[in-house]
């Protein structure tokens, strides 16, 4: 089995075994026997498939993997922390790390991957800063992200968070990660771990020529999820055309549809590995996975696959957007299986018919102003920079600073009942000597659909490292 280096001291098999299906197996409320399930995974290790991916919410997956690692050497354990949206706290971060260490039966987590729910709440960055402290203390070997988009992966790295990987959906059905995400990874040396590569098993010979299934409890959670991806890509008939094209390539190479689908993603330049799910004690797919190291896709195969993919509608947005905005491409079609609620990023105070939000910066108290003020249906957001928690978010990159500023404006608006879509005017101030074009492009990326009135001017900002400042006005409809 091919191997890939994620970071110093962490080499993984390029086909990783995903244990998310443990949660599906335990759907009825009865947990798997961890000893029996761990023994069922021994053949994976024997075959060189010794890297296992899990999360804090994959049922008893961490416990099972910990039992396996205690009995076998050279096993890599990759897990995730997916906290509920809301403020970060040192106590919650420490508890999450403690819980993972305990369930994995280890004193150091090989890779801890963090899932950010909302960029409008800077708590996602605060949690990364806290996890970086645990990494520095030796409790975590490496940090990764999961379902993070390209803009915010770039932002976190430029702010100094030592990210080595990002786990995202990537398949013949969903090629979002091949664009801006791969460019950011190439710039920073970050690797992608691709999940959904087989679309919950839909990208396989088993589904070629099958009638369109309903999205209901007769399917696994993964199949329910990726049926929604199929709909977004143009529907079942066009998906069957994709399967047919992949089958023709597979016939010529003497392999399976699943082999071709995985090899296509493995050959993408930013990808370190693909995560293929296993159901301990039921389906393992070991022999099929090992075949991936025994063939290559030639130029004709790649052209045929690209043409088949181009016939689909692209999945909209960037990586992870399916968890942040409609349509929610999840098993349930919403976030009810994932979160209970999204609290406002900051509390609002009401007095004299005016609602105000403060974000806790020292300047607000010193200079006597609010981050945003709502009177009636109008919201005015003060000049906002990329200063947060004693750091300049985005480093000295003007585009990264701009994106964080827009996130902060979004958070202020959400706290007062609005959103970026309600903005009717922005004013952008760029420090003398700073290239204006990356700032304009970042503004354009975030406001392409809203298209507010805008003024962009040169100005000396209050700090040499704060390259951009933006204020905004919104009107609620």
Topology diagram in text:
Elements: E1 3-7, E2 10-13, E3 15-18, H1 21-25, H2 34-40, H3 42-46, E4 51-53, H4 61-71, E5 76-81, H5 90-104, E6 109-114, H6 123-136, E7 140-146, H7 150-158, E8 163-169, H8 180-188, E9 191-195, H9 221-232, H10 236-253, H11 257-266, E10 271-277, H12 286-290, H13 299-310, E11 348-351, E12 354-357, H14 362-367, E13 372-375, E14 378-384, E15 387-388, E16 391-392, H15 398-415, E17 423-431, H16 436-447, E18 453-459, E19 468-475
Parallel strand pairs: 3-4, 3-10, 4-5, 5-6, 6-7, 7-8, 8-9, 9-10, 17-18
Antiparallel strand pairs: 1-2, 11-12, 12-13, 13-14, 14-19, 15-16, 17-19
Structural commentary:
This protein has 477 residues and is α/β, with parallel strands linked by helices. The chain has 2 domains: 3-323, NADP-dependent oxidoreductase domain (TIM Barrel), CATH 3.20.20; 348-475, 2-Layer Sandwich (60s Ribosomal Protein L30, Chain: A). It has helices at 21-25, 34-40, 42-46, 61-71, 90-104, 123-136, 150-158, 180-188, 221-232, 236-253, 257-266, 286-290, 299-310, 362-367, 398-415, 436-447, and strands spanning 3-7, 10-13, 15-18, 51-53, 76-81, 109-114, 140-146, 163-169, 191-195, 271-277, 348-351, 354-357, 372-375, 378-384, 387-388, 391-392, 423-431, 453-459, 468-475. The strands form 4 sheets. The chain has an 8-stranded parallel β-barrel with strand order 3-4-5-6-7-8-9-10, surrounded by 6 helices. Strands 11-12-13-14-19-17-18 form a 7-stranded mixed β-sheet, with helices on one face. α7 links the parallel β7 and β8. α2 (34-40) packs across α4, α7 crosses α15 and α10 crosses α11 (257-266). The longest helix has 18 residues, at 236-253. The model has no long low-confidence stretch (mean pLDDT 95).
